[in-house]
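Translate structure to sequence.
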């Protein structure tokens, strides 16, 4: 039997349970179960279907438990950032988690900044200020649903919520907490004065745990339901999927400050691993975040709207019967001669009813000839993304002691060779790629270290 570490990896469009085990010094992974993730509108808000996601996660774990060749030793959960659930005194979910793309926070960031000194706030939080951040979601709840906040004993980010229902311990992992704008970037702890000023109860916010800590042993009733041994541990991994992915990036420690990583998926996360945060007004104006990293330091990074725009286009086209396989679309894009470039970060592209119409409308409003057809539109999106990546690297270079010399693209988007070439061209640096399954690999590596299977990620190939 192979000592097996399970990564429950949740993205905005889908989730999966991956198994990882080390054989002859090589980390091997396999997908046990993949399932859709969806946003559900109920009444005035857009929610995540947490009960279905939790059931799907358990199904993936059950499949591992049923395999005679696998001995499950631990489970780690990673998800997207900022979203959360509230749990009452009895361990019940107070309300379904609301999706960060819900409109309840529109304008709240701007309103907050009008009442606060932006540079002083950034010097504490160190996070790019956006309407979707946890701080503004909680403000929206206080305004619209104060009784739900009153009923909460524990505030838990999405990976902490999944883990709570696996092991029963309420805690918040450092990397996911750092996306909230509620953490003190220097102390790595909750910003209690800010939490109190917002009218929130500090006791709602559980202890911070670091990546590699054992959250606890799996609950007996969950172990029995899934046919697991009762000694399986739930591990706090890099619970923000970006941080699990960056941990897997093949960047030598000696090159960490001069090699950037780009976690390329629905969102594009562009960053450099640093020992200490950069909390200057210049960093704030550049839209940079100091997010917690697996090694306890920070990633200086930018959140960039990534392949979301292309994903929405493909969904739209598929409904019209258009062939949306990449092997069909990318050759069309290669032949494109469009000069259209869009601002991929414009809020217009956050969640339009028609992404194709949004792109055409944006171009027209800015005096640009809109792309025509699938090939031109795909090229427009990828070229715009590549230019945005190049600008992000330039922004970081103005703050770093040494400039970025190489970019390592990881995640599913690393397979998009056209995007990689365009990025290398516009940024004028070397671009390397892989691993594709960086998030799951980083998740599993942290578990293997925590469980004593290996001493460091450098002991294994992957």
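Result:
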């Amino acid at each position: 039997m192979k000592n097996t570490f399970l990564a429950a990896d949740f993205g905005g469009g889908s989730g999966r349970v991956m198994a990882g085990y080390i054989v002859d010094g090589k980390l091997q992974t396999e997908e046990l179960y993949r399932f859709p993730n969806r946003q559900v509108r109920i009444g005035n808000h857009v929610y995540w279907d947490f009960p279905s996601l939790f059931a799907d996660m358990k199904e993936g774990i059950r499949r591992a438990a049923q395999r005679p060749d696998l001995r499950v030793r631990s489970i780690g959960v990673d998800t997207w950032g900022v979203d959360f659930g509230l749990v009452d005194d009895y361990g019940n979910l107070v309300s379904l988690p609301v999706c960060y793309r819900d409109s309840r926070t529109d304008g709240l960031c701007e309103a907050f900044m009008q009442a606060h000194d932006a540079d002083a706030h950034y010097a504490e939080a160190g996070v790019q200020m956006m309407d979707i951040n946890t701080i503004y979601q909680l403000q929206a709840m206080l305004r619209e649903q104060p009784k739900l906040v009153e009923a909460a004993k524990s505030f838990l980010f999405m990976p902490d919520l999944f883990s709570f229902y696996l092991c029963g311990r309420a805690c918040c992992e450092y990397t996911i907490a750092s996306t909230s704008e509620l953490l003190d970037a220097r102390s790595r702890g909750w910003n209690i004065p800010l939490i109190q000023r917002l009218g929130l109860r500090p006791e709602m916010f559980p202890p911070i745990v670091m990546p590699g800590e054992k959250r606890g042993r799996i609950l007996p009733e969950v172990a029995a339901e899934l046919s697991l041994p009762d000694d399986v541990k739930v591990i706090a991994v890099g619970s923000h999927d970006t941080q699990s992915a960056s941990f897997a990036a093949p960047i030598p420690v000696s090159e960490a400050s001069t090699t950037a990583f780009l976690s390329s998926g629905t969102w594009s996360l562009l960053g450099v691993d640093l020992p200490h945060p950069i909390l200057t007004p210049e960093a704030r104006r550049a839209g940079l975040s100091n997010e917690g990293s697996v090694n306890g330091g920070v990633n200086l990074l930018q959140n960039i709207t990534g392949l979301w725009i292309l994903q929405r286009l493909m969904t739209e086209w598929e409904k019209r019967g258009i062939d949306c396989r990449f092997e069909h679309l990318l050759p069309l894009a290669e032949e494109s001669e469009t000069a259209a470039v869009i601002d991929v970060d414009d809020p217009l592209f956050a969640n339009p009813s028609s992404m194709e119409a949004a792109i055409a409308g944006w171009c027209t409003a800015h005096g640009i000839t809109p792309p025509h057809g699938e090939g031109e539109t795909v090229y427009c999106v990828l070229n715009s993304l590549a230019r945005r990546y190049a600008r992000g690297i330039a922004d970081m270079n103005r703050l770093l002691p040494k400039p970025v010399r190489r970019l390592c693209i990881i995640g599913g988007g690393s397979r998009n060779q056209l995007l990689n070439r365009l990025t290398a061209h516009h940024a004028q640096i070397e671009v390397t790629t892989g691993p594709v399954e960086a998030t799951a690999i980083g998740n599993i590596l942290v578990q293997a270290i925590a469980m004593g299977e290996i001493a460091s990620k450098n002991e294994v190939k992957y």
